[in-house]
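Raw record, unedited: Translocation/assembly module TamB domain-containing protein
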Amino acid sequence: MTVRGPLAGAPTIGGTITVDRAEITIPERFSGRVTMLDVRQIAPPPKVARTLAKARAAITPRSTAKSATGVVLALTIDAPARVFVRGRGLDTELGGRITLAGPVEAVRPVGAFQMIRGRLDVIGQRIDFTRGVVTLTGSLDPDIDFAAEAVRGSITITARVTGKASDPQIALTSSEDLPQDEILARFLFGQSITQLSPFQVVRLTVAVAQLAGGGQSADLVGKIRKSTGLDDLDIVTDSSGGTAVKVGRYLSDNIYFGVTTGGAGQTNATINLDITKNLKARGEAGTEGSSLGVFFEKEY
């Protein structure tokens, strides 16, 4: 490590730092993006107007001629191995080198890490990566690009994990022109989605939730629902905050049967019977017990 320049001015800290181990974690689920509303007060009362004026003054940027410290970085980060990227079934080890340049308040990391080894686990099925790279181009949120291949029967399935580490996109393609839900069914079970059992459909939906992380699953779940002939197929949040899969189907015009399976092994089955327009029966059985009730409903 070296320090050059006046300490009271803008010294430059340089040198090489060797990293023994580092981890980049991909979150299991993402919160929805919130757009802030532009709220305007029309003819506020005098007291409210004074409060708003104080608030605007508090957030008005002040003069920012120079940074608080003035320290400039010119560092090289050397990590030949044991840089791990993990989360959402992804588990990889990389090695590489980056540079940190610029003032500490706006440092720019630039460089790349190449994959040493890696895999993607989807509900017990493993696919090994053939290549991978993590690139930093000035942001602390790196770009990732991984590719993996697996052979299922007569088709070769390719999985690509790309995008920002904070919000990666996972896409499946195959040597045959197949939709995403069909490719995932072939990868997990080695057979077409139309041949899956109800339990396999639930596992397939869990895989969609794992890969999509809450943000991309709606379209694919809809395709699975249509392909399997279910009346209801949804990814929901259970009472403990985990991911659960809900499936349901009308056995007849007045009988509906549904099953909800959670990630912790909890299963709950319900059956609804419309006896008349206003009289309904509901039965429920699961790992926490069972219940039966008759309900009278009338709209006024």
